[in-house]
Design a protein that fits this description.
This protein is α+β, with helices and mostly antiparallel strands. It has two domains: 7-52, no CATH class; 55-89, no CATH class. It has four helices and four strands; from the N terminus they run αβαβααββ. The chain is flat and about 45 Å long. The structure holds flavin-adenine dinucleotide (FAD). Residues 22-28, 45-48, 54, 56-59 line the site of flavin-adenine dinucleotide.
Length: 95
């Protein structure tokens, strides 16, 4: 029986569970980082042989960046963003 008022994060930590995550895209990797930070043993299974870009850009909204900051990945993502006013339309090409 869980005590009333216990936060979801505390309950997850208490459970100390194991998660198998199918797919190593941004969703799967973010889930793995969040679960590991909450004390879970999380393993990611990706069917692709490597992570390859689709040749398209991705727009990350402010709330997504807040989460990436919480996961400790925000600075790395910002370091890879194209200079202001420029967009990469395909790998290696600026548009
Ligand atoms: C051309 C294009 C432009 C886009 N532009 C934007 C944009 O500007 N902004 C935005 O927010 N989003 C954009 N999107 C959408 C964005 O790509 C997705 O929202 C995002 O990648 C979803 O992440 P995900 O981790 O959920 O899924 P995915 O990135 O699709 O990752 C899923 C992973 O799971 C793996 N997988 C699937 N099934 C299995 C299985 N059975 N076993 C093992 N592994 C499996 C796949 O190989 C894949 O690597 C765009 C998409 C496309 C195609």
């Amino acid at each position: 029986m869980k005590p009333e008022g216990t936060s979801a994060g505390a309950r997850i930590r208490e459970a100390g569970g194991r998660a198998l995550i199918i797919g190593g895209g941004i969703g799967g990797l973010s889930a793995a980082i969040a679960l590991q930070a909450a004390g879970w043993d999380a393993a990611v299974y990706e069917r692709g042989p490597s992570l390859a870009g689709a040749g398209a850009g991705i727009v990350l909204a402010a709330n997504a960046m807040k989460l990436l900051d919480r996961f400790g990945a925000g600075a790395e993502v910002r370091a890879r963003e194209p200079p202001s006013g420029r967009r990469r339309s395909a790998p290696g090409r600026a548009g």
